Each structure stands twice: as structure tokens, then as C-alpha cells.
Amino acid sequence: MRLPDRHRSRVVLIGASQYADPKLPDLPAVHRTITDLAELFTDQYYGLVPEEHCTVLLDEGDLRTVGQRLRGAVDEAEDLLLVYYAGHGLVSGRRHDLYLALPDSEWTGPEFNSLEYDKLRNAVLDSPADNKLVILDCCFSGRAVTDSLAADEAVQLGQLDVSGTYVLTSAQRDQVALALPGEDHTAFSGRFMRLLREGVVGGPELLTVEDLYKRLRTLMEAEGLPVPLNRGAGTASQIALGVNRAFAATVGPELRKRHIAAVQQGEGGDWMGASDALRKILDEQTRVLGPADPDTLRTRQSYAHSLGGAGDPMEAARLLRQLLADQLGRLGPDHEDTLRTRQFLAVNLGEAGYREEAIGMLRVLVADRGRVLGAEDPHTLRTRHMLARNLMLSGAKDEAVALLRQLVADRERVLGAEHPHAERARADLADVEGEEGG
Predict the structure, then answer these.
(1) Other C-beta atoms within 10 Å of 70: how many?
(2) What is the pTM of this model?
(3) Do residues 51 and 111 touch, judged by C-beta distance below 8 A?
């Protein structure tokens, strides 16, 4: 089970929401369905492909254009080829062949102005893609009625077979695929997208097309809606169409515990081990929770800082600058995590030899933390300590001594004389005063 390679995969979305033939009612829900599917499948993080690898043929009436663009995507796909159709399903001929309606299709003669499924099937068969998936949101039986994607008589699912691929349909032999009043999408596609956006509680980390089919079948049966049907061959059923976003509800707390343990490992002196552990946690959080999740951002912060502790402050500073830019946009300048990143960045810049830049950042940070948290908050006191240490290391010993003396007094009053932070401030003060005496 795996996600497809974004750059070696292609998605083709075909939909018809408006029809010239009065016997084929317009389907406004199809327009919203196709546009929202395109957004979902090209999402920067959760999507299947980049935007340029998603071909959208919405209300395209020219059969030749549809064929050319479909063939282009089919030929380019190497890992996953996904073809998704939403609209009226039409049948014609003695064998009740299936045709996928386009805006200029005719109820009584679809074979001359519609996309014949057999041609679509053959095109998919010819693709070099390792995994091929066809999803049809249309009816195969009944007559077209208002709010229905139906057309004429039954079509056996066997006609839809594509060797080595997976075919998922929105309805079974004698059912219609509905576009329910008041819903933005067709019944099948709306629930399909909801599963990808919200996930399946208690489900696996990755959602395969088979997982989605089983869940869709349960949901639609429970609601009294047309029941989906599937047909798979080979291992195509195990291709994942997305991360299970509900999986984060169970894995998130466990990753948070591991994060805390890794930070404690670093503070205990094993910065190298901590950085390795945090890198693995970060990879999992990015995949499961997403890059913008607060837990993911926090682990980026801890991981970067651990690299500095392990002896690479320049790389730590580089990562922290990137993180700070993201936090300023997502969390704001006064958020606790943003302020902490500024301190970590200053500390690592100082360790990398950029003392003056670090001192300038810490002076501003002392004022900002004092404004946001209060002058005697432990975090503000910590920033004052970092400023004093960098001043001491840069040779500005007089200012460092003045800051440390005030810091010792404030920490003893706020935290107590026996607190480790108070002891650390006294030790640093003794060191710099000893150097002055020497």
C-alpha cells in the first residue's frame, strides 16, 4: 500500500453539466463536482498530482478535443492513471453499449456524439501506467429524470472491465445515480470527496480505492442511496488515493509523546540521538497531520534546534529562518511558538559565530517577550540570560555583568535561590566576574 508518485501520475476529469438535447436535463451538481475534484486531487499536500498533471474536460462538447486530451494524459501516465467521469450515462445498440454523455450528445443517437466507453477503456488499456483507475459517476439503467444521471437500459459491469485496473461505479445494474436536491455535488461524488477530506475514523493511515469503496457502500446503503459497484484486477485495488485525515486523531497524541521524549533526550545531552528521533517524528507528522499542523511546526522547531546542539548551528539557523517565516504567516508574531523560534534562531546564530546579529535579535526579543508575557515571566528571563551570555562571549563584559546581576536577583525572587536557572545565572556571573578580576 502506497501513495502514487505525484510526478509520474495523471488525472483526467470529464464532466458534462449542460446539454443541448432537451431530453437530457442539465446537471448543475456535476459542474461543482468536477471543479472540486480538481481542487482536491491537486491539493499541494494531500493531492495526487500537481495542477499541470490534472486534465479537466468540463462541458467540452467536441469529441475530438476530448479524445486528444485524454490520449495525451493516458500516454504520459507512468504510475497512476485516474479517469473520472460525471454526467449522464447513455446506452445504445443491441449490446446496450455504454456512452458517456457530452454537452452535444443526443438521447436517441449517442453513438455519434458521445464518448463511447469502449474507446475510453481501450485508451486506458494502452497506457503505460502501472496502476489504472476508472471512476464513473453515472447511471447504467432507467430513464433520465430530473436530478438523475440515468439513461435507458442496463449495462453489465463486465463491459467496464479494464485488465490490470480498478473500476468503481456510482450505481449497480438497476439503480440510478442521483444528484440530490440541496446538495452541491452528486450523491456518489459528494460522499467520495467527503471521505478524502475528512478521512475514516478507525481506518488505516492511507486510504486505498478499495477502502473508499467499502466505506462508500456502507454509507450509501445506510442512506438509502444507489449502491456503488467495483471491479478490480491485479494489485490496483491497493493503490492509495490519499492520507486518512482522521488517522491523525489517534496517531497525533502518540507522536506528541515521542516528541516530548526526544526533546528530553537532547536536553539530557544526546543531541545526535534526539535529532534522529525528531527527524522521524517530523516525517510522520508531515505525512499524517500535514505541514501546517501546530504539532508539525513545533517538531520542525525542535528538530532544527537539536541540530545546533549536535554541532551544526548553521543548518539549525537555516531551518529556523524557514520555520519563522511560516510561523509569522500562520501563527502571528506574538505566538508563543513564534517567539521561541526567534530565540532558538538567535542562539544558533551566536553559536555559528554571528554574535552581533544574535545580540541584536535578542535585544528585540527581550522587549517583545516582556510585552507579551511580562518582564518576569520565566521565558523572558531566559531570553535575558541568552542576551547576557552572547554579550559576554562577544567581549561586552560590563553590560553582561550588569544584566547577569539583575537576572540573578530576579530569578532568585521569582523562581527561588535553589532553582537550576538561578544557579546557572550565578555560575555565569561568577565566571565573567572572575575573568574581569583576572
Answers:
(1) 20
(2) 0.64
(3) no
- Is the CB of residue 187 less than 8 Å from the CB of residue 179? yes
d(C-alpha 385, C-alpha 382), whole Å = 5
Give the torsion through C-alpha atoms of 73, 74, 79, 82, to 10 deg.
Answer: 80
Indicate whether 334 pLDDT > 90.
yes
- Is 178 strand, coil or helix? strand
Degrees (nearest 5) of the Cα angle 396, 400, 405?
Answer: 155
Q: How many helices (H) and strands (E) does the chain have?
A: 14, 11
Q: Which of 52, 54, 53, 25 is nearest to 37 (CA)?
A: 54
| pLDDT (tens digit per residue) in 394-428 | 999 999 999 999 999 999 999 999 999 999 999 99
Parallel, antiparallel or unpaired: strands 206-208 and 229-232: unpaired
- Annotate 187-202 with b (16+ C-beta within 10 A) or e (fewer): bbbbbbbebbeebbee
Buried b (16+ CB within 10 A) or exposed e, 159-172: ebebebbbbbbbbb
